[in-house]
Write a structure and sequence with these properties.
Elements lengths: L1 H14 L14 H12 L11 E5 L2 H10 L5 H4 L2 E8 L4 H15 L7 H11 L4 H25 L3 E2 L7 H8 L6 E10 L17 H4 L4
Antiparallel strand pairs: 1-2, 2-4, 3-4
């Protein structure tokens, strides 16, 4: 049973590709969207802090405004849904304190018992510059991206992860600066168009012998 599930998962990863043309007439169900969001929510992150936010852009007018800022890539408006992973441009101790409050509440343990761990995290993160904090937070968003892409593939949902956009323009359109956030990744999701020739291209990945090193 486990082997079968793993094989299905690997087949899904082989099936997925960066979709260049979506079928604008097909939409994801709310249940599918919730499953994708839950996959992001369950993602691993450094210290478990998950510093990023996920924007689900539904408004077609906003998506039309975003397209020029995304190098006029058609997927931004064609896809059923548009996800934006946004990272904080800076943060303070509240990021850690809020997380520890959640840990204490979820696990039913005294909050004061977590103070040592909180102090440790603060000693490692709060001394960083704002730019270093932003870069660290962005790396956590990339972990979430991996979960989102894999979950979508397993559900036979097409995606196209995008770094090709002008962050300042996207941030302004989405009102991110006042939230202390900046766009890190944009992910259109939906169903591939039958006219997307890219889907027929053979998947190219580095050979295992070149990628893996046994020490």
């Amino acid at each position: 049973m486990i082997k079968t599930v793993v094989n299905e998962y690997l087949e899904a990863l082989n099936w997925r590709y960066a979709t260049k043309k979506f079928d604008a007439g097909r939409t994801l169900s709310e249940d599918q969207v919730e499953q994708l969001l839950e996959a992001v929510r369950l993602s691993a992150s450094s210290y478990g802090l998950q510093p990023y936010k996920v924007l689900l852009v539904r408004d077609p007018e906003i998506r039309a405004r975003l397209q020029p800022a995304c190098w006029n890539q058609p997927q931004v408006t064609q896809a059923s849904h548009l996800f934006v992973l946004a990272s904080p441009t800076d943060f303070g101790g509240e990021l850690i304190d809020t997380y520890l409050d959640e840990v204490a509440g979820s696990r039913g343990i005294p909050r004061e018992g977590l103070s040592g761990y909180g102090d440790f995290m603060k000693s490692k993160l709060l001394g960083l510059s704002a730019q270093e904090k932003s870069e660290w937070a962005a790396r956590q968003a990339y972990i979430a991206l991996g979960n989102l892409l894999a979950a979508a593939a397993f559900l036979q949902i097409d995606t196209c992860p995008m770094e090709g956009f002008v962050p300042q323009q996207v941030d302004e359109i989405l009102g991110l600066p006042e939230k202390g956030l900046t766009a890190t990744l944009i992910i259109p999701a939906g169903y591939r168009s039958g006219e997307d020739a890219t889907q027929h291209a053979r998947k190219v990945r580095r050979p295992a012998a070149e990628m893996f090193i046994s020490v």
